[in-house]
Amino acid sequence: MVKIITDSGAVFEDEAEVKKLGITVVPLRIGIRDKIYYEGLDIDSEKLIREITNTRAIPVSLPPTRDYMEKVYQKVIKEGDEIVGIYTSSYINPVASVAREASIPFLGRARITIIDSEVSSYALGLMVKEAAKAAQKGRSMDAIVRLVRGMIPYMYIASFSQDLNFLRHKKIISPSQAILGTMLGLKVFLILEDGKFIPLEKVQTEEEMAEKLFEFTAEFASIKRLAVLKNDMSDTVNAFLEKFANLPFKVRPFILPLSPSMICYLGPRSVTLAIQEGGA
């Protein structure tokens, strides 16, 4: 059976299903000041936010080391010699590159395909889960790779961030934009396009944030799955959900925490929509 590997940037609505499907999740590293943590093992979103508050530092999301990835392959190959790795967008974390390098010593012993999902978070989790379900049904490696790559155009991520210094640190906005925007209390609306966050608009109030998220969602002809990921900003999320309920989509939004690796990118005061468009 084909084995599926992903990284901890993937978010799932049911962690128990991850184990049931036999998915191997490689922890991304979270660096803050002189400390290194492993996402999902010794740090979660709440702990990271406390660290940010206490140190006033901007954390970074780092890939696993090549040595760590080689050990993952050694273990997984004992269970199956066909592996599909589906990873966070390389613009957010270069984990796919490390995974590809680490696979080189195993060429000839196993077939390993690395896929840059061009997304992260819940959207990545959906792709990984569908791949694992297909593997359990006995589908071939080539069929699973086609399935995953066919899902990429149907995955969308839109976010609002109030932590403009985080966006400046990731070179999404300029230092002058971060300084002025912080002074004015602006929130930046971004979409993930071709794996990279692109800033589109700025607003000032939570009501405007909810309205913009609603407008983004309303543009879809059909929605198969949707999740709202956040750690705070409950007023914005509740206002959005009230508006979303008036749309004709027969989908129940999941409310999930924003992962530590995404907090590293957008900051703790952010909210993200992850959408799978219908038809995938």
Name some characteristics of this structure.
40% helix, four-stranded parallel beta sheet, 13 strands, six-stranded mixed beta sheet, 280 residues, alpha/beta, 11 helices, single chain, 26% strand
- What is the H/E string? EHEEEHEHEHEHHEHHEEHEHEHE
- Principal-axis shape equals globular
Helix percentage: 40-55%
Report the strand count. Answer: 13
Strand order of the largest sheet: 10-9-8-13-11-12
Class based on secondary structure composition and strand pairing: alpha/beta
Query: How much of the polypeptide forms β-strand, as a percent range?
Result: 25-35%
Could you name the ranges where pLDDT drops below 50 across 5 or more consecutive residues?
A: none
Distance between the termini: 24 Å
Task: Quote the average pLDDT.
Answer: 96
Rg value: 19 Å
Largest sheet: 6 strands, mixed
Q: How large is the count of helical segments?
A: 11
Would you write up a description of this structure?
The protein is an alpha/beta fold. It has helices at 15-20, 45-55, 66-77, 95-103, 121-136, 141-151, 164-169, 175-184, 206-218, 234-244, 260-266, and strands at 3-7, 24-26, 29-32, 35-38, 60-62, 82-87, 111-116, 155-161, 187-193, 196-203, 223-230, 254-256, 270-277. The strands form 3 sheets. Strands 10-9-8-13-11-12 form a 6-stranded mixed beta sheet, with helices on both faces. Helix 4 links the parallel strand 6 (82-87) and strand 7. It is globular, with a radius of gyration of 19 Å.
Q: Helices, strands, pairings?
A:
Elements: E1 3-7, H1 15-20, E2 24-26, E3 29-32, E4 35-38, H2 45-55, E5 60-62, H3 66-77, E6 82-87, H4 95-103, E7 111-116, H5 121-136, H6 141-151, E8 155-161, H7 164-169, H8 175-184, E9 187-193, E10 196-203, H9 206-218, E11 223-230, H10 234-244, E12 254-256, H11 260-266, E13 270-277
Parallel strand pairs: 1-2, 1-6, 6-7, 11-12
Antiparallel strand pairs: 3-4, 3-5, 8-9, 8-13, 9-10, 11-13
